[in-house]
Structures are given as C-alpha cells and as structure tokens.
Amino acid sequence: MENNRNIPAGIGLFGAAGAAGRSIAAALRAAGLRYRAIGRSRQALEHAYGDDPHAEIALWNPHDPASVAAAATGLQTAVYLVGVPYDRFAMHPPLMRNTIAGLNAAGVERLILIGTVYPYGRPLHNPVTEAHPREPHTFKGRMRLEQEDLVLNAHGRHGLNTLVLRLPDFYGPNVERSFLHQVFEGAARGERAQMIGPIDAPHEFLFMPDLGPVVTALMRTTAAYGRVLHLAGAGTITPREVAARAYALAGREPKLMVAGKTMLRALGMFNPIMRELVEMHYLLTDPVVLNDSALQALIGPISKTSYDEGIRLSFVAATQGLKLRTPASV
C-alpha cells in the first residue's frame, strides 16, 4: 500500500497548532483525508501532528505573501485559523491581505475563515442570524469586520471561492484559550478557579471537537461559498453552572474567584491582556447567541455534544493532564 505521506495534501490548515486546527485535523484524519498543517513553529506542529501519517508539516511567514504562496502550493482548500495576541488585533487585516495574495498566487480554489461574533457588536436580539447588522462598537470588532470583508470581497476573484464561518466562545479538552479552562483545572486540582464575571447570564459555548466535522462537510459544499454562516453551540448555559457541574464531577463544591469589569480595569494597569478584556466585557452582559439554521439547511443536522458530556470530557482531560504533570511518588 502506498505511504500516505507521499500523497499530496489538498487541504491546508493555516495556524494549525491551536485547538481549532486540532479539531479539524481529527475530522480529516477520521475521513481518511490528507492535510497540510501550516504554522510558524515546527516544534509545535511536530508535537501536534508529527505522529499522524495523514499530516504534512509546512512552515510559513504570514507577513510575507511569497511565503504564504510557498506554503499553499498544490492546495485546493485553505482553512484560516490564525490567532494574534489579544493586544495586537490590528494585525488581523494585513495578515489576511497577505494570505489572500499568497493563495491567489498559488492557485488555491477555496478559503474558509474561522471567525467570531465580534463584528456584530451588541446583539439587537437573540438568537442572531447571519442577517443581523454588523455594527461593532469595539476596536477588536472593527478589525475582525475588516478581516471578514477582505475574505468576502475576494470571493469570485482569481478563481478563489470564500466562506466565513462564525463561532461563539468555545471550550473542550485541553482548550487552554477558553475562559472556562480554569474551571476544569480548578476542579481537577481542588483549587479555586479564576473566572470573569458576571457568571449568571446564559452564554453559548461550542464544544471544540464538534467543529472539525462541520468544516470537513463545508469543504465539499459548493453552495456554502460566497457567504457567512454560523455554527452554534448546544444551547446556552451559565458559566456558574459549568463550574458547578465540573466541581461536582470531582466531588467538590465550586471554589471560584470572579473578576468583574472593575477588577479587570484594575488588573489591566499591570497586565495588558486583562486591560484588553475590558473592551469585550459586553459579551458577558449582552452575549451573542447564534442561530445556525442556514448551516444545517446546507449540510444537514449537526451533531453537537451536550454540555453534560462536554464538561465531563473536559474535566477528565484536565485530571489526566494533572496526573501527567505530577511526579510519581518514590
């Protein structure tokens, strides 16, 4: 049988080392599809994908269109998952311009941007459909809006078809860039978990492993391109309820330290990331809840992990990670 690594990859995951990249890679692997994991750190890529015979690893410099083109050579579909530091959101539009230029030079046919709810600003109503006005009142929202517009305006040019898939906040096993991650770590350790409040408003979270099968389906759904689509979570839940369920799995009462907007401002005097969180605090008081009926009309019913199961799996992963980090007693 031919070695899978010798089969050219037709799908490229740009910014593959993060949680979204790992989710999509798992779905591609399950479907027997080859993919190219593209990032800036070979060490991170090797750690995530070095043992996967379906994966081809490639490095890129997203600031250089020629480097983008080199990383994209031979690809049919590009999935853009690139994150930037929370205090450097101005990087989003120029990085996307470079990426589109590189993809055009390489002759890539499809581009999927994994986006956020930031471009909407405060919701006028919930749930929010794709027809909701995009009226961001924050700098981060405006940067994400500009990024989205670059992708949407590139559709139909130079043979490139584009799609924006918006996600809510997310969580999952070992998803460290979720503000619920501290809850699972705290429950596993029996320690106090730091949370950002208020924590009693219904909120929507996507279980990150549910993303991969959806993106895999969209890669072969021609009618999805040239538009924006939503992927919603499994309903809503309050962050406090997430904490209660996680600590219950450990047989413990929740121990929480909740930082509200005033505390974030104070912490922001010393921590630039905390300072940046103040701007997006409205998402905790006026959360955006997504309607994904348009997506389901295109690809059919979507399997979504319940909060009970997602919390259990996230807690188990945190517990296993704690055991791996704890030296065995002699």
Task: Give a written overview of the molecule.
With 330 residues, the protein is α/β, with parallel strands linked by helices. It has a domain at 4-173 and 205-234 and 288-302: 3-Layer(aba) Sandwich (Rossmann fold), CATH 3.40.50. 40% of the residues lie in helices and 16% in strands. The chain is built from 13 helices and 12 strands. It has helices at 19-30, 42-49, 65-72, 92-106, 139-153, 181-189, 211-218, 239-249, 261-268, 272-279, 282-285, 293-299, 307-325, and strands spanning 11-14, 35-39, 55-59, 77-80, 110-115, 161-166, 169-171, 193-196, 203-207, 227-230, 236-237, 256-259. A 7-stranded parallel β-sheet has the order 3-2-1-4-5-6-10, with helices on both faces. A 3-stranded mixed β-sheet has the order 7-9-11. It has a two-stranded parallel ribbon with strand order 8-12. The radius of gyration is 20 Å and the shape is globular. The relative contact order is 0.13.
- Strands, total number: 12
Shape: globular
- Largest sheet, strands/sense/barrel: 7 strands, parallel
Number of helices: 13
CATH topology of the domain at 4-173 and 205-234 and 288-302: the name is: Rossmann fold
Mean pLDDT: 92
* Spatial order of the strands forming the largest sheet: 3-2-1-4-5-6-10
State the end-to-end distance: 47 Å
Q: Whole-number radius of gyration? A: 20 Å
Order of helices and strands: EHEHEHEHEHEEHEEHEEHEHHHHH
Q: Please identify the structural class as seen in this structure.
A: alpha/beta
CATH architecture annotation of the domain at 4-173 and 205-234 and 288-302: 3-Layer(aba) Sandwich
CATH class of the domain at 4-173 and 205-234 and 288-302: Alpha Beta
Estimate the strand proportion.
Answer: 15-25%
